[in-house]
Amino acid sequence: MIVAHLKPPYYAVIFTTIKADNTSGYDQTALRMGSLAKKQDGFLGIESARADLGITVSYWQSLADIQKWRENIEHTEARILGKEKWYAQYQLRICKVEHEYGFKK
Fold it and tell me: Which residues pair with 54 in a beta bridge?
């Protein structure tokens, strides 16, 4: 689902991944992280597409909110597992969104 109710300015965390061969436990953890992120202060929404190249974009009110999410203990544990086990490569980008527009039939 596309998150369409956001009002700029806000922040987007773009997490792009290539999975490693061993993804045991990945799907359950990804679902848990999505559920947990939704409970964090400043969380605005999330969009995700996972295939050979995975892209997850989460939206936040502030950089401070993103930092608090980064410091969440369960999220920290998931990041460690990602580096050790699930990802062959990843890139994380944090962007300030100043303008947006969209279309829906």
Answer: 17
pLDDT, tens only, 52-98: 899 999 999 999 999 999 999 999 999 999 999 999 999 999 999 99
Do residues 26 and 86 touch, judged by C-beta distance below 8 A? yes
Angle between helices 26-37 and 73-81 (to 10 degrees): 150
Lateral strand order in the sheet of 87-97: 43-49, 53-60, 10-19, 87-97
For the chain, how big is the Rg over CA atoms in Å?
Answer: 14
Domain boundaries, the chain: 12-97
pLDDT the model gives residue 52: 85
Architecture of domain 12-97: 2-Layer Sandwich (3.30)
Nearest to 37 by CA among 63, 59, 14: 59
Claim: this prediction has a pTM higher than 0.85: yes
25: left (phi over 0), alpha (psi -120 to 50) or beta: left
